Amino acid sequence: MTPPIRVTQADVFTTRPFAGNPAAAVLEADRLDEAVLPRIADEMRVAGTAFVSAPRGADADWRLRMFTPTREVAYSGHTALCATHALVEAGRVPGAHVAYETPAGPLRVDVERGEGAALMWLEPPAPALTAGEERLDEILSALGLPAAGLAAWARPAVTPDQDLLLPLRDLATLRALQPDMRRLAALRSAARARGVCCVSRETVEPASSTHCRFFAPHYGLPEDIVTGSVHSPMAVWLLEAGALDTRRGRAVFTAEQGDGIGRPGRLRIEVIAAADRTPRVRVGGHAVTVRSGNLRA
Question: 273, 108 in Cβ contact below 8 A?
Fold first, then answer.
């Protein structure tokens, strides 16, 4: 009898069920036809579905592919953490890290085990930011964001994933956003760009440093719950704006996302800065399994 293909659904960037960002992981993806992967991702109806298979090269433990409900993406932080969580639960991560080969290149996830859920750390390649885009007024209008809602603590910037980072004045301004999703999707598609991330330095919990909302309607994510991939460039952005204290060469902070849609997520961000090199950024989080079963495809 052919062994079943197991699928795990977990909530990521949280330690409790029904919070954070849901994702799914399929660990026996070698046994699936290529054409069925996007159909499974659509069927799962979570922001990210990971497919884990044997690596093609000798430098990785696993091959990792990631999909939103509508398309394959080169990198998704919470989806990669879901895959790692599923591997850890299955006893397939014997050491303190796992190395993936992905469409975006090598990806390493460090695993800190202790009491309770493991803390998993992503360290994607150091991101380089570029200046904000020219059609900013149109994007602000599509977001329902008046120009006065922009803050002066940083300049708008674009990440390597073509996400637009916008500094907002306060939490109230962030919460008040009501984007025109159809218009925003058209603008971002025309620019061949991904999402828009609006960031407030005023937070829900006093110990946190940022609170954000992320919109990518043309990727099947009208508002993403927690966006791991945007927080690495966001940390560099904050550093360049002078918003992080790295006098000792290192800053660690908590980032918030998802509270406004009833699924609060919390990320741990570590920035290691040095005057003579590009800063290193690690993005950490926990995950908790909420559902597991067999996949028929």
Answer: no
pLDDT at 2: 62
Between helices 181-190 and 136-143, what is the axis angle to 10°?
160
Integer Cα distance of 53 and 10 in angstroms:
19
What predicted TM-score, i.e. pTM, was given to this entire model?
Answer: 0.89
Q: 103-130 pLDDT, tens per residue? A: 989 999 999 998 778 999 998 887 889 9
Q: Where in the chain is the domain with CATH 3.10.310.10?
A: 5-124+286-295, 130-285
Residues in contact with 21: Cβ distance below 8 Å, sequence separation at least 6, in sequence order? 11, 12, 13, 47, 48, 78, 224, 225, 226, 227, 228, 258, 263, 265
* Architecture of the 5-124+286-295 domain: Roll (3.10)
CATH class held by domain 130-285 = alpha beta
Per DSSP, 32 falls in state S
The neighbouring-strand residues paired with 7 are 26, 293
